[in-house]
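User: Let's play a game. I give you a shape written as tokens, and you guess the letters that built it. Ready? Here's round one.
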């Protein structure tokens, strides 16, 4: 049995690498080698015989009844640890000859299990074999290789003239300049230049922003993204890989640790910011264009801004199982990879949020699906804001209240908890909650509506004079409300889930309360009432990191899953260990996102401009014009992009 079983160390993997490299070889008299068999690694899942799991149960209430039916578990029920055995097996492994089949091992395991009164299953047997590639994996590798070549070629075409400029004469440079002017309409060259890693890198790392940008949003994006990664680092861990799992139940009784356990409000911040930006920027454009609105440009811009990176990460998910192996490698990565192989097209159509969590390609892509839904209905609202503000606010109120009612009704009908609770870690319950509440567009619509109303307010009020007392009360109220939303779940995570009525109230109102606090923060900072908080959120160092937020959101779950799958031994869960791993995930996510942005995201932003008729050279590929380029085009939200992002200038050759 695994060491520390009664403390929640549920696995004893052995050494998979050693097993797989075992060879039984006979040297014949003629000198030839003959392999009898090789090592084969077989996993065993051992489960105690428990009563059927109810559709709804709370470990502390239901599992107390087990002592009468299964006296063996009496000593386990002090901290309801036995509840984990409903969804987490004891994992052990055997190293057997490759001549044995998985069915042979299953027959042997079942016979031994019957004697010990436990259920034994053999989920997989694995031996060394050549890597096999599916058709879609080969296509994915081809696509990635193609774009990598484009980056190399585009970078060469961009950098070579800069290097030549260091030694060519002024006369030659002038001639080159004249020649370059004649090439400004070369669409093929413009497309290649848009893939230049050198120029795209300079733009990504620039701390300059365009005039009129809501600068506090940069800091809010980065901090919120860091919070989301922290929560995912803890929640994405495999129970099978965890040591001291039952002792980790005590973390729910840590008041500060609620920040990790209740990360769910963070996404409402992103939804609200999306609403703020789409209203704020669209109203400014309508004013500039005297109420004229081009829906084709509006939707095309959004689609081209989001889709390439979304497709890229979907392809990476399909390829991820090819990058290693381990005792839990396939069971961790294959479900996600197979879902993407079957349903990658749902990401192109942005309908993934309507699928069950286990059927989604990139479950965290639900946010993009919801965001696209909101973006589709947004023109109706901001056009009314521009022409009939009172009607638009009535519509926002109707949509917001409908969202609150829908969440409350669903929570009541399905007896859902207010949020996925730490005292109920059953993955089936989590998947069901996220599939019907967490991932649905109607759940977060209130946050988007409040965001749009906030964007309208900022459009009307560039500055706002608020007296010191009112300002202080506003900040205190916002802080109190948001802290209540985050830390108000303490008793539920530490001890017992709330009653159904309390769960309905929190589920229905918490998103609204949180978003109102965020709305105050944005308004106060953007209108000159933010003080020190505004200075922190508007810190220039946040600007480059903010531009990477979209890709960081997309790639960080892949890094967490890859790290989890790659582990060869169980790890002992401690807050220090999780925090240390979190810092690695955070750093790796930004590094990988920077690389992918150079390859996919930034080039497609420029390609969109080319589709609209502007050459790459007109968009900033000029030596002396590089530092004059507005960087707003690389901000997190596509709503924040101005109509003209790059300044025009005379074309010259070399830098």
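Assistant: Ready! My guess for every position:
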């Amino acid at each position: 049995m695994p060491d520390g079983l009664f403390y929640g160390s549920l696995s004893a993997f052995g050494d998979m690498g050693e097993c797989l490299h075992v060879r039984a070889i006979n040297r014949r008299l003629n000198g030839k080698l003959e392999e009898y068999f090789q090592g084969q690694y077989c996993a065993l899942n051992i489960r105690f015989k428990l009563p059927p799991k109810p559709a709804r149960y709370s470990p502390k209430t239901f599992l107390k009844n087990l002592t009468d039916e299964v006296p063996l578990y009496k000593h386990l029920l002090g901290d309801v640890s036995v509840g984990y055995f409903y969804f987490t097996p004891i994992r052990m492994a055997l190293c057997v000859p490759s001549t044995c089949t998985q069915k042979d091992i299953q027959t042997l395991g079942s016979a031994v299990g019957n004697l010990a009164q436990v259920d034994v299953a053999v989920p997989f047997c694995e031996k060394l074999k050549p890597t096999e590639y599916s058709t879609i994996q080969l296509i994915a590798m081809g696509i990635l290789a193609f774009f990598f070549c484009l980056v190399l070629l585009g970078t060469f075409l961009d950098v070579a003239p800069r290097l030549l400029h260091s030694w060519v004469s002024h006369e030659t440079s002038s001639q080159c300049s004249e020649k370059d002017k004649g090439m400004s309409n070369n669409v093929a060259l413009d497309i290649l230049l848009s893939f230049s890693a050198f120029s795209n890198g300079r733009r990504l790392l620039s701390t300059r922003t365009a005039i009129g940008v809501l600068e506090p949003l940069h800091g809010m994006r980065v901090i919120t993204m860091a919070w989301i990664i922290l929560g995912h680092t803890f929640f994405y861990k495999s129970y099978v890989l965890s040591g001291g799992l039952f002792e980790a139940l005590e973390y729910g009784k840590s008041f500060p640790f609620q920040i990790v356990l209740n990360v769910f409000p963070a996404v409402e911040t992103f939804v609200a910011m999306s609403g703020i930006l789409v209203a704020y920027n669209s109203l400014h454009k309508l004013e500039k264009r005297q109420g004229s609105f081009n829906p084709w440009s509006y939707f095309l811009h959004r689609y081209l801004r989001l889709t390439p990176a979304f497709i890229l990460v979907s392809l990476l998910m399909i390829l991820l199982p090819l990058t290693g192996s381990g005792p839990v490698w396939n069971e961790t990565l294959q479900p996600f990879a197979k879902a993407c192989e079957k349903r990658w097209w749902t990401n192109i159509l942005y309908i993934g949020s309507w699928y069950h969590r286990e059927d989604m390609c990139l479950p965290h892509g639900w946010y993009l699906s919801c965001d696209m839904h909101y973006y589709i209905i947004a023109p109706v609202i901001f056009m009314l804001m521009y022409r009939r503000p009172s009607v638009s606010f009535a519509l926002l109120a109707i949509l917001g209240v409908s969202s609150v009612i829908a969440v409350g009704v669903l929570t009541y009908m399905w007896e859902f908890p207010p949020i996925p609770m730490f005292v109920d870690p059953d993955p089936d319950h989590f998947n069901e909650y996220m599939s019907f509440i967490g991932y649905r567009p109607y759940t977060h619509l209130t946050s988007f509506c409040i965001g749009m109303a906030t964007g309208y307010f900022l459009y009307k009020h560039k500055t706002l004079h608020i007296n010191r007392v009112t300002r202080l009360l506003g900040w205190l109220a916002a802080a109190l409300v948001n802290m209540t939303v985050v830390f108000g779940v303490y008793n539920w995570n530490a001890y017992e889930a709330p009653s159904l009525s309390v769960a309905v109230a929190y589920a229905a109102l918490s998103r609204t309360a949180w978003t109102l606090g965020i709305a105050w923060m944005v308004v106060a900072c953007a209108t000159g009432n933010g003080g020190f908080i505004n200075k922190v959120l508007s810190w220039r160092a946040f600007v480059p990191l903010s531009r990477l937020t979209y890709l960081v959101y997309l790639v960080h779950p892949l890094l967490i899953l890859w790290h989890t799958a790659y582990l060869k031994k169980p790890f002992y869960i401690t807050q220090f260990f999780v925090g240390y791993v979190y810092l690695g995930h955070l750093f790796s996510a930004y590094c990988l996102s920077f690389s992918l942005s150079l390859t996919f995201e930034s080039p497609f932003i420029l390609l969109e401009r080319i589709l609209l008729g502007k050459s790459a050279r007109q968009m900033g590929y000029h030596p002396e014009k590089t530092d004059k380029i507005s960087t707003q085009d690389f901000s997190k939200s596509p709503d924040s992009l101005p109509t003209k992002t790059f300044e025009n200038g005379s074309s010259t050759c070399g830098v």
